[in-house]
Amino acid sequence: MSRPWVKLWTKTLLSPDIVELPDYLYRRFIEVLMLAGMNEADGQLQPVKKMAFILRLKETQLSENLTALSAVGVVHQEADGSWWVTNWKKHQYAESIERVRKYREKEKQKEDSAEPRYGNGYRTVTRVLSSSSSDSSSLSDSDSSSIERLAESLTGLMVTPGDVETLNAWERDGVTEADIRDALQWRVDQGRPPVKTISQLAGGVAVSHSRRVQGASAKSNGKSARAVNTAEVFKESEYAGWYVSDVEDEQEARTT
After folding, report:
1. Helices (H) and strands (E) in the chain, counts
2. What is the pLDDT tens value at each position of the chain, 256 positions in all?
3. How far apart are CA 189 and CA 196, in angstroms?
C-alpha cells in the first residue's frame, strides 16, 4: 500500500552535499523520496522505466540523475540493477510508528469483533424503559471496573483519566445500565453527533437517572402506571440544556 506521506528531515538544509545540488537534482531528490514512499518497499524504488513515466522524464535522463544522486550518497544501485534510497528505514521509520501501527491493528480487530453500530458511531443500543427489577438494579453493587467496562461497551470509547470522576459519580449515585442506554438512545434519536469522551454523557445520564428515580418514587407513592411512564419520558428541552452545555464546554476547551 502506498504511503500518503514521507518524512523530510530539517537537517537536510545543513547537509552541504544536498544543498549544493543543482536545482533540478534537488527536485529529483525530493521526488525520489516520494517515489520510495509510493512503492512502500523499505526504500526500494520502482524500475527506472516506471519512474520515468511517473515523472514524465526520459529513461536516460532519469538514469543520469540517479547516478548523480548516488554520488552524494542519497541513493544506491544494487547488483541486480534496482535502485534504493539509502538508509530509508533509519530516516523514515521509528519505534513510535510501529507502536501506533500495532495499536491501530489491535483497535481494528476489537472493532471488527464488536457489536454492530448505528451509523453515527454508537454501538447498538436497545431502548429499555420498563420498570422491571433488572433495569432498576444499581451499578453500585458492582466494582468500579464493572462500570468502566459497561461504559466502554455501550459507548465504544475507552475510559480516560478525565472520565474517572464521572464514573465514580455514577457508581455513587446508583446509575443503572438503562440510564446510560437512554442517554445514548436520545442522542441517536435526535441525530446528535457521537460523544468523544464518556464524561460528555454525564448530563444526559443525570437526566435519565433523575427521571427513573422520579418514576420509581411516584410508583411507590401509589401513583398510576401512566404517571410513572410520564415520569420516564425524556423531554427534549431538558436534554437540550445539557447538550448545549457540553458543546460550549468543548468549544471553550479548544480555545484555551
Report:
1. 13, 2
2. 577 888 888 988 999 999 999 999 999 999 999 999 999 888 999 999 999 999 999 999 999 999 999 999 999 999 999 999 999 988 887 555 566 667 777 777 777 665 544 444 444 443 333 333 344 344 434 445 678 888 888 888 888 888 888 888 888 888 888 889 888 888 888 888 888 889 888 888 898 888 888 877 776 666 554 444 443 444 444 444 444 445 545 554 455 4
3. 18
What's the burial of 45, exposed, middle or buried (CB within 10 Å: 0-12/13-18/19+)?
buried
Which CATH fold would you assign to the domain 10-92?
A: Arc Repressor Mutant, subunit A (1.10.10)
The Cβ of residue 3 has, within 10 Å, a number of other Cβ atoms equal to 13
CB atoms within 10 A of CB 228: 18
Q: Which of 166, 190, 168, 154 is nearest to 249 (CA)?
A: 166
- Delimit the domains of the chain by residue range: 10-92, 117-255
**Is there a contact between 70 and 45 (Cβ–Cβ < 8 Å)?**
no
Q: What angle do CA 180, 186, 191 make, to 5 degrees?
A: 130
Provide φ and ψ at 195, rounded to 5°: -70, 150
What distance in Å separates the CA atoms of residue 18 and residue 40, rounded to the nearest whole number? Answer: 23
User: 117 by DSSP, 3-state: which?
Assistant: strand
